[in-house]
Amino acid sequence: MNYALIDTDILSYFLNGDISVSEKVQEYLTYHNTLSFSEITYFEVLAGLEYKQATKKIIQFELFSANCQILNLSTKSIKISSNIYGELRRGGLHIGTPDLLIAGIAIENEMELITNNVKHYQIIKELKINNWKV
Predict the structure, then answer these.
(1) Res 1: pLDDT
(2) What is the DSSP string of 62-130?
(3) ∠ CA 125-70-57, rounded to 5°
(4) Coil, strand, or helix at residue 71?
(5) Taking Cα atoms as reference points, which of 119, 115, 99, 113 lies closest to residue 10?
(6) What range does the domain containing 45 cover?
C-alpha cells in the first residue's frame, strides 16, 4: 500500500466515524505507522471546529493530530503548486488554492492523495489520487 496524504474531506469522514473510511484507515495502518495530512488540512479541520465552537472536538482533534504526521508547505511544494496553477489557468481550468497547496505537498512527498473530491483533483496530471469513501 502506497504512502498516502489524507485530504480534508476524508479526514473529516474518519473523525466523524464513517465506517467505510474507518475500515480503509485501519487497513492503511497495518502497513504504515501513522496517518499523514497537510498543515492545510490541519487548518481546515481546526477552523471548522472553531467556527462551531466545538471545544471538546478541538481537544480531541489536537490529541489525534499529535499522533499523526502533519506535512508542511515547503518552497518546493509551493513551486509545484504554482506550476500546476499556471498550467490549469492557461487551460481555462481552476481549483481552489487550498487544493492546489495540498496537491503540491502530495506530489513533493511522492504520496497518493486520499480524497473524495476526485473531481477537483483529477485534472492534475502529476497527482495520484484514491478515494476511500467509495
Answers:
(1) 80
(2) HHHHHTSEEEPP-HHHHHHHHHHHHHHHHTT----HHHHHHHHHHHHTT-EEE-S-HHHHTT-TT--EE
(3) 115
(4) strand
(5) 115
(6) 4-130
Q: What angle (nearest 5°) sits at the alpha carbon of residue 53, between those of residues 49 and 54?
A: 60
Amino acid letter for position 56: K
48, with CB counted inside 10 A (0-12, 13-18, 19+), is middle
Q: What is the CATH number of the domain that holds 126?
A: 3.40.50.1010
Indicate whether this model's pTM tops 0.70. Answer: yes
108-120 pLDDT, tens digit per residue, is 999 999 999 999 8
- Grid-cell match 478515494, residue found: 131
Domains: count for the chain: 1
Task: Summarize pLDDT for 56-90 with one digit per residue, the tens.
Answer: 999 999 999 999 999 999 999 999 999 999 999 99
